[in-house]
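Quick one: uroporphyrinogen-III C-methyltransferase from Orbilia oligospora, structure tokens please.
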Amino acid sequence: MTAPEYPSATILPSTSTTTTTNININNITTPTYTPSLLTATPSKGHIHLIIGCNALASARCTRSLEVGALPTVIFPETLDSEEVHLGLKKRIEDGEVGFVNRVFEVMDLKTLGREEVEHFVDAVFVTAGYGGGGVDGITTSGMGCKLASRLRRTVASALPAGIGGACERWLSQICEYWPLQKLVDLTEEDINNLFDEYSTSTSTPLSTSSTQQTETEKPKGTISLIGSGPGNPSLLTKASLDALLSADLILADKLVPSQILSLVPRRSTLFIARKFPGNAEAAQLELLEKGLEAIQRGQKVVRLKQGDPYIYGRGAEEYQWFEKMGVKIEVLPGITSALSAPLYAAIPSTHRAVADQILICTGTGRKGVPPDPPVYVKSQTTVFLMACHRLASLVDGLVKTKGWPEEVPCAVIERASCEDQRVVRSTLKNIVAAIEEVGSRPPGLFVVGWACEVLKKVDGAWSVEEGL
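--- reply ---
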């Protein structure tokens, strides 16, 4: 196939001048630059040349179309090849995306794009603010420059002071789950301590000698095991909020939303579980030991879990552990996302003549081994927690091993009840391709069953809904 006859794309002309200059390299100093400028480039009618046929290429096409550009993809595979992403194939067949069926060549940069810029303005520098390694920017697309400055100040004032410095002190697990204010307060010494603690926890099993309780040594403090609910602070129970606000030490799982962690008083100590691949068991024991040590010092401890502590939260295991140590533990319920997330996504888990039962499953078994998928029951709504990271294998097991029909509707619900909630609706046939294209936004869960289309049906392969 040949490239579609789109308007030519922008290619900046280049010039060359040869000059001989004697330079003393000893006098050269490395200049200090501010962070890169943010640009907002008008793209309506531009050609975006994209190489490849995978999920990333499909996502690039989607974004190009959203800004009014005309994407053209180049790849040698035929459209019926399994290598071609489903969403990309559909856009090509619908005529939304141009298609050149061959291997990319350097000359394509000259033959498939514009030859000159003329007087066209192809870059707009947005109103930006700098702090440390961070840049925040606002553009009003040329409609109001003074308003852009005001909007940027408003956005900047809502961020913790010094947030740019956090960009220079990033650590993957910490940056993904810690509250922003805690990142701002992070010092070089804190980072060194974290490295030392991580090294210790991965190289040497944690000693349990410090947790051995003698008959005469009785705990002086208290501990409460509480659920944080799905994520929105307003959904915390009053009992849980009271416990959180009065605690000396909060031991939190890393998936507890930052909105909940931001409620922790400054006087309290917050410790977030260092659970990462290969360290889950050691990190769990570390939390328990820290809790026991604090109790023995007479402190009030809160063990903070996502959702409800007894719904795939290992809450009962922790209850048993502290009970063996002679500690009485208070357990406070939380609203589980297994029931609240479908509600926020307009999915009634039960509905007359559609679904008369609910099954809650986990997608991650002990030591990471996936559990056996459930059998298909047409009148059942099935909710999978902790499954989005292995969605492809889960769906494959449901369809190929357990015989679930591919047309069964389903949804991935991410960050339920939060302002940045996202719902991806589809069927078992297309849900994996949908998530590959839009990416993941943890934490999330997977809902499958005919109740998923009672209130909202999908027109096409999938749909994406942003926000509450």
